[in-house]
Amino acid sequence: MLKSLKGYRSSFHLAKQLARRDITSQHRQSIFGIFWVILPVIMNAMVWIFLQSSGTIQLTPTNIPYPLFALVGTAIWSIFGECLNMPMGTINGNRGIITKINFEKEALISLGLIKIGFNFLIKLTMILFFILYFQVIPATSMLLFLPFLFLVMLFFISIGIIISPIGILYNDISKFIPIGLQLLMYITPVLYVIPKSGLMHAIMKINPLSYIITDIRNTLTGMPIENGFFWLGFLVVTLFLSLIAMVVYRVSMPIITERMSA
């Protein structure tokens, strides 16, 4: 674990250079530029906003304006998805330098973190714009937004790192993740609140992501934290997973590098 931490520290400069290259090239040949970061979020939310406002579907009333509810939910969910996909995506996207240059492979995770941070700032700006537009009054719970969000991001990144050795060898994993996230979103209160009864109520209540997405959205929209004790347990689980992820990454990367070079 100490070697892994030293690897992150010594390779951070390389990670910054790679991140600058990737972010610049990603938006250089695009008309809309960084707008593409938030376009999928807005389009996904707009579909549900239209369905709800037109009466096509009947959703349980929300404590905040529904458009804000949907936009914040989809933005947060997209961040979770980025974190989960990041380890495999970064490793696969840098096969060339992995096989040709000897460097601390923790630079790849740092690279992914910088790119996620860049996208996060864009999405956060969008969220704050809509919070101001709908005149939502913030509360002291907003101070917990970043700690809660960063903890969940660490959780998903750790899972992404742990499954990345299998995902690099078998493309089925990377193809299944978007499908799994899409299905999981519909049993999580991303676009609608937990029903008061019924099968979906029972499913959402046993889904830990329900407590996560609800409280993170509450911190941004002036609502109280509903699941305080849950976060204490989640902190322990996340720290444990992050330690496992560091060990798995350190042990597996030489094997992955060798397989890529073969």
UniProtKB/TrEMBL annotation:
Pfam families named in the record: ABC2_membrane (PF01061)
Occurrences of domain ABC-2 type transporter transmembrane (ranges): 16-218
One GO cellular component, as annotated: plasma membrane
Chief location: membrane
GO biological process terms, semicolon-separated: lipopolysaccharide transport
Membrane protein topology class: Multi-pass membrane protein
Location within or outside the cell: Cell inner membrane
Keyword Transmembrane annotated: yes
Molecular function terms from GO: ABC-type transporter activity
InterPro entries reported for this sequence: ABC2_TM
Membrane-spanning parts: 30-51, 66-86, 107-136, 142-164, 176-194, 229-251
Family, per entry: Belongs to the ABC-2 integral membrane protein family.
This protein's name: ABC-2 type transporter transmembrane domain-containing protein
Species for this entry: Flavobacterium commune
Organism taxonomic ancestry: Bacteria, Pseudomonadati, Bacteroidota, Flavobacteriia, Flavobacteriales
